[in-house]
Amino acid sequence: MITVKEAEGLILENTRDYGAEIVMFDEALGRVLAETIKADRDLPAFNRVTMDGIAINYSAFENGTRSFAIKGTQAAGANPIEINSEDQCVEIMTGAAMPEAVDTIIRYEDIEIKEGIATVLAANVKKGQNLHLKGTDKKQGDLLLSPGTTITPAVISLIASVGEAELRVKRLPRVVIISSGDELVEVAATPSPYQIRRSNNYMVQAILAREGIKASLINIPDDPEVIQHHLAICLQNYDVILMSGGISMGKFDHIPQALAALRVQQIFHKVQQRPGKPFWFGKHDNGVVVFAFPGNPVATFMCTQRYFVPWLNASLGKEESKPIFAVLESDLTFEPQLAYYLQVKLQFTGQGQLLATPLAGNGSGDFANLADTDAFMELPSEINEFKKGEVYRVYLFNQLQ
Amino acid sequence: MITVKEAEGLILENTRDYGAEIVMFDEALGRVLAETIKADRDLPAFNRVTMDGIAINYSAFENGTRSFAIKGTQAAGANPIEINSEDQCVEIMTGAAMPEAVDTIIRYEDIEIKEGIATVLAANVKKGQNLHLKGTDKKQGDLLLSPGTTITPAVISLIASVGEAELRVKRLPRVVIISSGDELVEVAATPSPYQIRRSNNYMVQAILAREGIKASLINIPDDPEVIQHHLAICLQNYDVILMSGGISMGKFDHIPQALAALRVQQIFHKVQQRPGKPFWFGKHDNGVVVFAFPGNPVATFMCTQRYFVPWLNASLGKEESKPIFAVLESDLTFEPQLAYYLQVKLQFTGQGQLLATPLAGNGSGDFANLADTDAFMELPSEINEFKKGEVYRVYLFNQLQ
Fold first, then answer.
1. Is B311 in a helix, a strand, or coil?
2. Confidence check: pLDDT of B18 > 60
3. CB within 10 Å: which end of chain A, N or C, has fewer?
């Protein structure tokens, strides 16, 4: 049985580039950039006024001039108004391009205007004040964004500003989520006393939706021929097959045989972890990867977050995520030689330290508990006694804040 | 001029409940629950087998029996197979309901099966092992989820499991984002040397998209009559009007007058903060709230995250978010008597402490910088000298991890 680190390594050796596609910039939120974005002109593109007021030549002010004849009023977007004498000024608005003959803005609050003359009331005026100078943020041709950048709202704004209306982003893999097991009934149905409602597939679908993937859902019965038939179709039509359940040693777990018959190579089966020990991972010759997770809700949830999402991010060429560490808030014993994924609630101290309070449920079947927690804390298999105050890595599944 | 705290208080005094609506559970990701969800039956609903193997009566094993005649094989979802003698067993699969006459599961790895007889090889068998007992997670009628819960993937799974296919969630406010300013051109257009491309509206739209809101976009020219006409229509058709730009003291900033003419009451104008000092907030008699942010990209970004999102969360009845604190990683001086929203990159130490490294841009016009940072650190207005090692609150705008 391999370790968590080995499993992670094997999964990341089997990432794949699904190419790129063009989307409109305002529909690209959450996607991964597949091109380099450069500044099409200086940022700012001109000496940009940052306060409404008057534009003067500082040397006039320095020489004692306090009253300036208003030559005109310049809105943002308008051509600069030219003035030809030092005792003139331009009334000018935030966002406007500074005329060449002037160099300093005095805001309305610091002047008085009467009969076309603006008089400066402020004693303290600095040369060049209230201007955002051309090219101080970026020069024309400067790199703004690199391939692999996740498209956030701030990135969208930057992309809009340089006119990249059509954007090259990484193509997302086509994913199908297969649930199997005759004990499962539909959500709207009433299960018999020995059945349960289908839920893992919807949970995985929601995790993928957060990553921008609209996954298909397929339910297949515990029948070897039907399973093989469906898997064969999925291997032709999807890039990734995610499964929950049907991979343990039971008589009715026909999936491993079906996968073998369809020439999906097993890369590993079983990982030294709880939950999720029976996790199976493989790949078909045609490149389709198969993540077969144990059917326990918590195991499926953990494996999707811990293994599938990093695989996806690496396949998309995203920058690697920075690890998050938290302080364990209570003592804990875990005997088995397995990595243990502890469900925790997170909270920051006033000192900026992240505290992880375990909310131990009743094992991998207990998903009522999952809804109340924020993250898994990864407790290493080599240790059995975990003490309050020790620090371990956590994997968030809900956003902080 | 009011403080950040006062602005926040006034905004949170003007939240509004937009009621509830029914959505399908698998389209409810990110929405806020508007009903109480209880367990429709015990969780688990029956004594659930957690390993594939045989089900025996422990007292037989205790009395020395090691070989058991296999009465039948029971799949998950099937009716329990009844046995009538202690030397019988049932082959049973993970997820199956435990028959009444047996109490212990021995997994396949620990038995040998020959000619219909299962022989136990393991010496160490615990009574009741490999079972997840009925009702140990939750009892029928127990509270699972309360109104105000954000619907995460784990919540979706829980909701599916109790059969709540149609879900009552909080209705989202209808939001319009208005951009104004004759200096703005469309993203696909080539601006004149004194124009810039529209970008703030798309940035705000993306922030709202993350919150599940599909906001409308409207662009209006700097013309008093046109502005008033459009605002009047928006006041009839939306719950929230978000604006960027057009609210400072300039000659061409017609929006404050138009709002006044339409009887939108100013609740405040100007906050002791940088960026975003000219932030204007008001409300119409009919309940429509108006957030008018300064036109600087960084100011609009900060105000949307810092003021609009918390207003939205409170309006939806979401649980209050837990504050995040981080350690400032370098010294900094900020003289004005304003709260300063410093752009920072975040990273955890191996000790679980969150470090904030400033990536100071060129002021509120510099949004190239925004794309490289994770959060705003809120530096209080009463302090001017900030030292490395001090801890302040941060407001994330990108997800950690």
1. helix
2. yes
3. N
Whether residue A45 and residue B209 make contact (CB cut-off 8 A), yes or no, is no
pLDDT beyond 80 at B251: no
CA distances from B266 to A360, B228, B243, B290 (A): 50, 16, 14, 9
Q: How confident is the model at residue A221 (pLDDT cuts 50, 70, 90)?
A: confident
* Counted domains in chain A: 4
Asked if A401's CB is within 8 angstroms of B322's CB, the reply is: yes
Write out the residue range of the structural domain in which residue B28 sits.
Answer: 22-43+139-170
Phi and psi (nearest 5°) for B61? -60, -45
3-state SS, residue B299 = helix
Boundary residue ending a domain (B80, B106, B132): B132
Shared domain check, B166 and B177:
no
Residue B364 has pLDDT above 60, yes or no: no
The pLDDT value recorded for residue B221 is 86
- What order do you get walking across the sheet with B289-293 strand by strand? B216-220, B175-180, B240-244, B289-293, B280-284, B264-269
Measured between beta carbons, the chain A residues lying within 8 angstroms of B212 are none
φ and ψ at residue A256, rounded to 5 degrees: -55, -45
The first and second tokens of residue B262, run together, are 């339409």
Residue B196, CA distances (Å) to B56, B199, B220 in order: 77, 9, 15
- Give B79's contacts in chain A (Cβ within 8 Å): 194
With contact defined as beta carbons under 8 Å apart, do A364 and A379 qualify? no
Give B166's contacts (C-beta < 8 A, 6+ positions apart).
B22, B23, B24, B25
Does residue B401 lie in a domain region? no
Asked whether residue A26 falls in the same domain as residue A85, the answer is no
Chain B CB contacts of A210 below 8 Å: 29, 153
H/E stretch holding A301 reads helix A297-303
The stretch A49-56 carries a mean pLDDT of 94
Report the amino acid identity of residue A146.
S
CB contact under 8 A, A199 and B96: no
Rounded CA gap, B332 and B377, in Å? 12
**ipTM passes above 0.90:** yes
Do B261 and B192 share a structural domain?
Answer: yes
Question: How close A374 comes to chain B (CA, Å)?
Answer: 10
Residue B343, domain CATH: 2.40.340.10
**A73 to chain B: nearest residue by CA?**
B251
CA-nearest residue to B278 within chain A is A51
Copy the structure tokens of residue A314. Answer: 């690496």
Is omega for the bond preceding B323 within 30 degrees of 0, making it cis?
A: no
- A39 contacts in chain B (CB < 8 Å): 368
- CA distances B41 to A191, A193, A198, B163, Å, are 10, 10, 15, 10
Residues of A whose CB is below 8 A from B301: 153-154, 157
SS3 assignment, position B75: coil
Identify whether B275 is preceded by a cis peptide bond (ω within 30 of 0): yes
Partner-chain contact A248 B202, CB within 8 Å: no
With CA atoms as reference, the chain B residue closest to A298 would be B154
Report the candidate in A381, A310, A394 with the shortest Cα–Cα distance to residue A354.
A394
* Assigned token pair, B184: 């703005």
pLDDT confidence of B361, banded at 50, 70, 90? low
CB contact under 8 A, A157 and B200: yes
Half-sphere exposure of A238 (CA within 13 A, CB side): 24
Place of tokens 């960027």: B244
